[in-house]
Structure formats: C-alpha cells, structure tokens
Amino acid sequence: MSKKKHVYFICYQNRCRSQMAEAFAKYYAGEHVVAESAGLEASEIHPLTIEVMKEVGIDISQNASKKLNMKTFMAANAIVKLCEQVAEKCPVVPFNIINMEWNIKDPLAIEGRTIEDVRVARDEIREKVLDLLKGMDIPVA
User: Fold this and answer.
1) What is the third-level CATH fold of 5-135?
2) Which of 33, 38, 66, 86 would bridge with 81, disulfide CB 3.0–4.6 Å?
3) Which residue spans adopt a coiled-coil conformation according to this UniProt entry (predicted)?
4) The whole model's pTM is what?
C-alpha cells in the first residue's frame, strides 16, 4: 500500500469550513489520508457546523478547534485554504506542496444567517474535497 497523503485544511477560526473539510476527507478516504484542519486563530466549533454534519451522518461534536501548526503545515502534501483571510495571512507554501485556495464564503459571517447557509457551504466543501481526493489519487469510499 502506498504512503498516506497528508492534507491540511486551513481557514480563519477553524470553527466551520475547515472542520467540515477535514471531516469529509476522513469520511471518504479513511485510512488512505491523514486529514487535519486548523485556523489562524482557534475558536469553538459552531453548533450549526456540528448540526449540518450530523445531517450527513458525520459526528464532529468531539472535535476541537486548533491553531495553525507549522510542523503539520510543512509535512502536508496539500494545503487547502478555505477563505481569503488565510490566503493573505498564511505562511508561504513551499513549491513541493500542493497549494489550493477555495475561497468559500463563511456561512457563519452572513448577516441573518440560517442553517441553510451552512448547508450550502457544507455541500460545496464536500464536492471540493471529493475532487481533491480524486485529483491526488486517494481512494474514496
């Protein structure tokens, strides 16, 4: 079996988008990937994030928000930045690491947000994660 690929998902607070991306990567690729997430700042995982992931059968209620770790960053095969703030403030990604910017709008920052806004982001993230895994030749279930 080939060596596991490491994917590091980064957003601003690690409370929604990057948590979803990490969970989807683990759910679909299982033992074939090491998926982690972090934020430029740590925050609590938002209850709506937990709720919309439960709707698709993934429980992230025990996950913790984490701050960017440079050791994990440098060990990754791919760095995925899920928002513009991260792209502007993130350390430079070395040339040997896949560098992606998805720029998915933070559904929790939408004025008058609803759970539907979080679902839309979740579904977009799921599709992008599946495309990423396939593009990196990581088997998906």
Assistant:
1) Rossmann fold (3.40.50)
2) 86
3) none
4) 0.94
